[in-house]
Write a structure and sequence with these properties.
Order of helices and strands: EEEEEEEE
Oligomer: single chain
CATH class: Mainly Beta
Number of domains: 1
Strand content: over 45%
Radius of gyration: 16 Å
Length: 123
């Protein structure tokens, strides 16, 4: 078993009631699930997001923790939160990583795989 294995999954949802397409404002909510599948407990220290819209405009977001927390995950535990992003286009994507620190002081990254932000229902 990998000592340091954090998996990240994401689901996104367009928020039409908060969006204003006439003003090029598309609001998306996303729910992230972070699961410790490794052998060591670890704390999420910081985050680095890369958000890209359909025009190729890239926003990079760095910050401490997530939603005001730095969750501590024992092996087998998970943490779920919901946040949001605003784009100028009805389509985009997000990816990045969480900076983690294990109990033994080891720093490592939990990769956030790319996921889509779309205002159209997927068929």
């Amino acid at each position: 078993m990998n000592e340091y294995l954090i998996t990240v999954s994401a689901q996104s949802q367009y928020q039409p009631d908060q969006s204003a397409p006439d003003e090029q404002r598309y609001v998306f909510a996303y729910t992230i699930t972070i699961e410790n599948r490794g052998a060591k407990a670890a704390r999420l220290i910081d985050r680095h997001w890369i958000i890209t819209d359909a025009n190729g405009r890239v926003q990079e977001v760095h910050g401490q923790g997530v939603v005001g927390e730095q969750p501590y995950l024992q092996p087998g535990e998970s943490f779920r939160y919901t946040s949001g992003a605003v784009l100028a286009t009805p389509l985009g994507s997000m990816h990045g990583y969480y900076g983690m620190m294990a109990d033994d002081g080891t720093h490592f990254q939990a990769i956030i795989p790319p996921f889509s932000l779309t205002s159209s229902p997927l068929h």
